[in-house]
Amino acid sequence: MGTLEGHLLPGICLLFFSFYYSVLVSLALLRGQRFFKLPLPPKEKREHSWKPVPVEGVVKVVISLTGILGEFFFPPGVNRMKLVNWEDPQRPFLFSENWYHSTMYGFFMLSGVADIVSQSCLARQSIKLERAAEALAFCILALLLMAHLENRSALEIRVHILFIVPAFLVSLVLAIEVWVPDQPQLWVLKTWLGLVLSTWMLQLCLVMYSPPSGQSWRSENHEDLTFLAIIFCWHLGLGAAILATVYGICSLWHHHCSSWTETSGAKYQPCPTGYSSDELEKLRAGAEQQDGGV
C-alpha cells in the first residue's frame, strides 16, 4: 500500500461505498424511513428459507482480500508473509508495513463477513452486529494510522493526522448507531465523513506520489504545510456539496416516481421487518402518512 496504486485502490473503493451510502441516506430521508436500511424479515417469514448472500458484504470481502493478497504476494513471485526472521539471533519482525496494511484490510473483511452472517445465516438479521463490525474496522484504521506516524516527515504526519480525524469520527458515529440506529442526523454525518475520507485519500495520492505541478511538496516549507490544512477544509465543503447534489438528484427521482405511482393508483407498502409488532405498526403508519402527503 506504500505506493500510488496501493493508496489509489482503497481510495476509489471507499469513494464508491460513500456514493452508495449517499444514495441510501438520501432515499431514506425522502421516504421518511425509520431505519437507514429496512431490516429483513425473520427466516420463517421469508418467501424462501434461504437468503441470497448480500452484495455489499461480498464486495467488502473481495476488495479486502484483494488488498491483503496484494500486500503479501505482489508483484508475483514475492512472499512477505514471513513475520519473524528466525535466522537472526535478535528475531526481528519483518515486513511491518505489509502486516500493518493487511491488518486494516482484515478488519474491513471482518465487517463484510459480519454482514453476510447477519443477513444470510442468522434467523433474524442483527443490525447491531453489522454496525459494531463497521465501527471496529474504522476504529482499528484510526489506531493503526496513529502508529503509522512514527519516523515520518512533517508532511506525511500532517497528511495522516488529517486522515485520522474523520476516520475516528466515523468509528464514533458507527458505535453510537449500535444503540440508536434510527437517527437521521447520524446517517448524514456518517455519509459526509465517508465522502471526506475518500476524497482526502485520493488527495493524499496527489500530495505524496503524483503532484499535478510536477514539484514535490516540501516538508520543511511552512507554506506547503499550511496549505494542506486549507485543502482539507476544501474537502469538507466538497463532501457536503457531493452529498447535497446526490440528495437533489434522488429528490427529483423520488418525486417523479411518486407522481407516477399516484397517477397509476399504486400504493407504497413498507417492506416487512423482523422487529416487534409495535415497531411494524409504526412503520406502516409512517408509510400511510407518506402516501397521504404525496
From TrEMBL:
Bilayer topology: Multi-pass membrane protein
InterPro entries, A to Z: DUF716
Segments passing through the bilayer: 6-32, 129-149, 161-180, 192-210, 225-250
Localisation: Membrane
Predominant place of localization: membrane
Alphabetical UniProt keywords: Membrane, Transmembrane, Transmembrane helix
Family: Belongs to the TMEM45 family.
Protein name in UniProt: Transmembrane epididymal protein 1
Species whose genome carries this gene: Pipistrellus nathusii
Lineage of origin: Eukaryota, Metazoa, Chordata, Craniata, Vertebrata
